[in-house]
Design a protein that fits this description.
Blueprint (H helix, E strand, L loop, with lengths): L1 H8 L23 E4 L7 H9 L3 E4 L3 E6 L7 E4 L5 E3 L1 E6 L5 E7 L2 E7 H7 L5 E3 L3 E9 L7 E4 L2 E5 L10
Length: 170
């Protein structure tokens, strides 16, 4: 994930993908998977377009259905110079694990980490604020000792003013 976040910080807009590697790794078929949000009608071309647009969630456990300000992953939020953004983060989540954390990753760093039990009490998150261009995604990491069980949205992008893509020197 760290390498992927560095690519996003370099200004590359690459959606995540997943596959089980069944037969290469001891994972069962379908263990790591990707869901694409494509709407109607269901079609081969529509699925690939959703993947290219970044309207995806990758997971090996939790099922996450996010909406940020009513938009799916891959969306680009735009604002003129001097107009910061406050984005409402919402999601529906299904997981078999009782413990874990819900995280907002902003420009490669954990911006916010909330225990799943605390989030489940309200089902809401405080708005996410941007003063300048960048990206963010939503990640869930569950407490399963035998494996790293997680789900991640594709990134959302924020463009403020004349600098549409954040590019980190790191």
């Amino acid at each position: 994930q760290h390498i992927y976040y560095q690519m996003l910080n370099a200004g590359l807009r690459i959606p995540p993908s997943a596959g089980s590697a069944s037969g290469v790794l001891p994972n069962p078929l379908g263990y790591n998977r990707m869901y694409a949000f494509l709407g109607e009608p269901l079609s081969y071309d529509g699925w690939w377009q959703a993947v290219r647009d970044g309207r995806v969630v990758v997971t090996n456990g939790p099922l996450m259905r996010p909406l940020v300000a009513g938009k799916l992953p891959g969306h680009v939020f735009r604002s003129p110079t001097g107009h910061p953004l406050a984005l409402d983060v919402n999601l529906r989540l299904a997981t078999q694990s009782a413990g874990g954390t819900l995280e907002i990753i902003k420009n490669g760093e954990v911006e916010r980490s909330i225990p799943l039990q605390k989030w489940a009490q309200t089902g809401t998150l405080a708005p996410l604020h941007f003063q300048q261009s960048g990206w963010f995604l939503i990640r869930v990491v569950t407490d399963v000792k035998s494996t790293y069980r997680f789900a991640s949205t594709g990134p959302y992008y924020v463009e403020i003013g004349e600098t549409p893509r954040r590019i980190s020197r790191a």
